[in-house]
Amino acid sequence: MGLASYVALRVGWAAVVSFIIVTVTFGLFAAAPNPSIQQAATQAALQGGDPQEAVERQRQLRGLDEPLHVRYLDFVTSIYTLQWGWSDYRSQPVTTALLNAVFYTAQYSVPWTVLTVLLGPLVGVYSAANMYTWRDHVATGFAFFGYAIPNFFFGIILLLIFGVWLEWIPVVYRTEVPTFSLANVRQLVVPVFVLVTGSIGAIMRVSRNESADFQNATFMKTAKAKGVSPLRAYAYHVMRPTLVPLSTTLVGQLLAIFLGSSLLVEVVFGIPGLGRLTFNALVAQDTNLVLGATLFFTFLAVIGNLLEDLAFTALDPRISYDDRQL
Amino acid sequence: MPRGRQTVRQTGGPSITRRQWLSALGVGSAAALAGCSGDDDSEGTGTATSGGGSDGTPSVSGTYDTVTASAFSTLNPLYNTSSGAGTAIGYALDQGYTFDDQGAYFPLLYDLSTTDDGSVWVFDVREGLSFGDPYGGVTASTFVYQIRELHQSDWAATAASSSWRGINVEETGEYQFQAEIPEAQLLWPESYDPLLYPIPTDLVQPYVDEEDAEGLQQDEELLNLSFTGNLGGYTLDKWERGSGTTYSRNGDYYVQNIEAGPDLFSDAPYFEGASISVVEERASRLGALETGEADSAGIPPERFSEFQEKPQVETFRIPQPFNRILSVNMRDNGWNAGPGNLFRFTAFRQGLAAAIDKQGMIRGIFRGLAQPHYTWQPSWSDWYPGDDAIEQFGAGDQYGGDVARGLVEEAISESAFDYRFDGGALVTPEGETVTLDLHHLAGGETFQLIAEFIASELDDALGIEVTVEAIAGTRFQSNYWTAEPQGGTATIAGEEVTWDQPTLTNPGPRSVTAAESWDMSIVYGLNTYPLNPLTNEVFFDGPTAQYNPVGYYPDFDARGVFERAREADSEDALQEPFTELFRNLAAEQPYVMLVFGDDLIGYNPDLVGPTENFFNGWDFPAWYFDA
Question: Which segments carry the region annotation Disordered (chain B) (predicted)?
Fold first, then answer.
């Protein structure tokens, strides 16, 4: 099996996975009672009308009187054509709600991810190079502090210090400031700092321990003997092999903590992003929006997995795709 | 900006379509104007330019920025049922009328009058009101069309639909129409039922023709309030979902030309703009108030005295009619401690009320910032019967273990089961200690404190063991508080009573129950309707009242009392039936009444306008910054 057919298979498999998810979702929906129908019945009872009639009417209105396979086809078609329905909780189409939220989430998650990915390994390697010195202890202490302190609590404390006491940053997040402006940097610097300190610890520790293995590797000795500068030696000979195992965990890790951490930080700093959107949709029982957000994250994970696999296949010559299991 | 439409205070949760019942309010949500702001540049908030208007009116300056705890789910005036979004709509669109600081009717879009005993009401629409292009002027037909084709239709299910059932509306002139209501009501305006938003006929007509409720709910112009013309003090610039609303001043606001009202209306409004930002974290809202980013915000009781000390915040205590109550479940899924259901005995509920120290609760939990709640009316209401006329359980000599035990003994003697006291502890016929669960709303610290206080008071006075459990509002509502309407009949005090129109909140007799069993809860507070106590019919006009989740069957002739109140031909004549109503409710404790917590609000000290009474904000257009 060649590379091309492997890639084709892998993409096909991703499509099948997404399809299975959509089907299971539909199954759950078909089995669950529809709140809008109960509401219609209640309304009719209140108005002195006939609840049964109202239920029928509502079922017709929502196409629930169609046979199951027709409803299933409609559902699948609307999912893949991005007709995700109307969000009652936000009074706008689900896709618009998701896009809006992604726009605000991206404004802090992009710098957060970039900084974590850049700084984590750097600090880790630096720590390893200065193993058991005070520098190492400071870096380790910092990592554990950031990892241990709850994000929302740290956020409130920093908001109190820099927002309320020193008044260096605004307390209320404003959506009307331009994306690329100093004002936006000012209102996002603390949330990003909180998130980075929260997520950098794990990556830093992993890279510290990974790179410790390479510190004393023969190629490092050779490099030092040849008079390579320490900076270059670390950057080229330690960082590179360290990043190979890291890069797999990195993507997965960031995806996993994306929703949870961002929810709490969004609540504290009042950022109208994905975390709050999803959480509030759940609380408000806004079915369409919950479904949309869930599908969004699922598709993201499926695509992320796919890209990771494809990148590996293309980049790492040691991985043979002949005996790879899908 | 009138408030008080909502009956129930709860946190989150889906709101039921009947607007007089439910409206989702945020935790500790405060009055219409409570909130915070955020003006990023220090130039913005509250800095008045020097000088004033030529006629002595203040100059227009600054932006009035507030915050709110939860996002708005809709700004469509026809469908909104929440008070938070009501405020956001109110900045840009006036309703028919309001009540001034004395509680007197104040006409905005129309005047209301009745020539007879309150069965025919005449609406006189103000001239000179106009929508934005292309919708033209507001006339009587604007309202008549809206009432007939939307509120009285069987498809639209608008928020106001329940207010217009069975009412005959006739257009009697270009600017006048009348409504004939089935049962005369002298205080009809005070029930908020005749309150309407102006909505352009041409805008809604396509949906009416199609009977398209969904399209009407989702209409962009209604959601973005882009038709408001001269009908509001501000124009909505943008509603950023999940983040809030921003407004700019409307220079040709119609109140500038009206005769009545404060002189300040002549140049109103006095802010260049306004905004409401959604900030879910309370600490952040309070921080914004402190830095001046917010011109107002609600303050929790435990931090009120701290904010009283701050020069950059002016604090207000505003009495309000929403109560804190202990609901006890008299339905078949209540009283899970043993056989029978002691909650059904008036004397037992009195015993519970007598066991809980109201003043202690006010001191300990509310820091003195609340009023005791003895009957279904706050003491500042015109209809409050007076302290001497009613029972006052949980205070003075009506408080304490001896009183409570005496009342419980009385209930036990009426009961078919041999409950008894064993060394000061109430035990079941089998001799087990009586253990009851108490659900409180999760996430609100005050709720938890009240629950724990009640638990310790009931343990001290009656030896009842209380298990305190936190619960999410949505879950409580769907599995405990409401049930599928089933209807049915029951024999009550020898009379056969039929549930003809069962509702989610009164699904039938006591045998019809919610999915989960529960004993006691403090999740919901209700409105006591001090402007028009007749509205309390929804809770108390007999076992079949629309809103009766706890299965309360009045011992007094409740229906007869409401009947007499409806038939009263003058406001003086109303006093007697209302006094009887509140005397009986104080005695029967359908819900064990605890306290009325004050709304605690902090304002920017430069702000002129806020007052410490329930009608605070009625003259919002006249508020200004005095730097």
Answer: 36-61
